[in-house]
Amino acid sequence: MTKVLKNIKGDKVIWAIVALLALFSFLPVYSASSNLAYLYGDGNTFVFLVKHFAHLLLGFGIMYWVHKIPYHYFKGLSIIMLPVVVVLLLFTMAQNTTIGGANASRWIRLPFVGVTFQTSTLAAVVLMAYVARYLSKIRDKKVTFKESLIPLWLPVFIILMLILPANFSTAAIIFSMVIMLVFLGGYPLRYIMVVLGTGLLALTFFILTAKAFPDAFPNRVDTWVSRAENFFNDKDTPEDYQIERAKIAIARGGVVGKGPGKSVQRNFLPQSSSDFIYAIIIEEWGLVGGVFLMFLYLMLLFRLVIVAHKSTDVFGKLLVIGVGLPIVFQALINMAVAVELFPVTGQTLPLVSSGGTSIWMTCMAIGMVLSISSKRESMLEEESDAMNKKTADINEKEDNPLEVLSEAI
Quick one: three-class SS letters along 99-141? Predict the structure, then answer.
């Protein structure tokens, strides 16, 4: 264990934030899993706690392994992995999993181990690394929209089209993050506006086609529309039931909460250990716990900005923003849904909600950020060693007058 700790590199504050989020997650996950335990088990929540611990343990293993990889390797890895994630997304879509007639093909079951894996989360990390690589490549070049259409936007829209039918919120987040990244990467604004317009037209065409031919292919368009309508109108729907229970949990929490494990709404709120875990946290830990959790994510954002600023090259800066910012963005969306500032999306709270794929991919993204910050530390250590060696040589010469005299002659 001591050897592992000595080999930990990168921003220590980020390590601390991730560790705090992981440690904090055990109490709300253990408490909120009672709903799942009675619905799909024998009422034993300890099984879900062990499962969450295993997910976090593997996640930290992924983060440790990834942060030891020199970050410039991610350029080549993003090119290699891009066709892999396209194949995985195609395989996921080909399963035609439906729930209530809607497309629910988000997961694949890994052979031999029997673990489910959400392919869209891996695709998001790979795509952001790929876009960062392309932007760093054209940083000092004048590129036309036509020249960037195939190498940049074709992979983006292919991945989005494969994710969209089953998971609109994830596709929307990925598209938003890509637009933000190309803007920060210096991509011409007029081209960005063209892409935005094209994306909106494509989404509109998809929705109209799905509404006109509802039996042509399974999709979740009706779910998206109903969630948007319910957010602005007062209607009794399953989503409204979730929001109402979440608001009751938040109201019961008050300032200091009811105490760990004393949530009542966990027994009534669907997805209490994943999508709506923030409401359970406020019910048990109060406003103090909710604000503290938000502070941790904002502190993570602050450290991401620092790591990006201190990065020695453009690719490092863009990679930190591309894979790091979506973590904070997703966390804020999850909190906004719980307090009814945003329609129900199905996004989890990173590193806190239960769920394997989300934890693993979040840890992989953070590992990439830590790899970039560790490169900066290595350079500073090399400069410090060189300075110390130079100082030692000067001191040694000063201690030897004959050597100083010979150099002067």
Answer: ECCEECCCEEECCCCCCEEEHHHHHHHHHHHHHHHHHHHCCCC
* Nearest of 277, 273, 330, 289 to residue 52 by alpha carbon: 273
Pick out the chain residues at pLDDT < 70: 1-5, 39-43, 96-105, 214-226, 228-232, 234-239, 376-409
Work out whether the CA dihedral 375, 380, 386, 388 comes out positive or negative. negative
Task: Kindly report whether the global pTM for this prediction surpasses the value 0.85.
Answer: yes
| CB contact at 8 A, 14 and 303 | yes
DSSP H or E run through 52:
helix 46-67
Amino acid code (one letter) for 152: L
3-state secondary structure of 352: coil
pLDDT in tens, 70-98: 999 999 999 999 999 999 999 888 876 54
Read off φ and ψ for residue 287, nearest 5 degrees: -60, -35
Which residue, 360, 361, 356, 357, is CA-closest to 48? 356
Two structure tokens written together for 76: 């080549």
The answer to whether 31 touches 260, Cβ cutoff 8 Å, is yes
C-alpha span between 298 and 362 (Å, rounded): 16
**CA 286 to CA 272: how far, in whole Å?**
16
Evaluate whether 283 touches 257 at the Cβ level (below 8 Å).
yes
DSSP code of residue 219: -
In angstroms, rounded to a whole number, what is the distance separating the alpha carbons of residues 333 and 330? 5
Q: Where are the domains of the chain?
A: 2-408
Element (H, E) at 98: strand 98-99
Tokens of 161: 């089209």
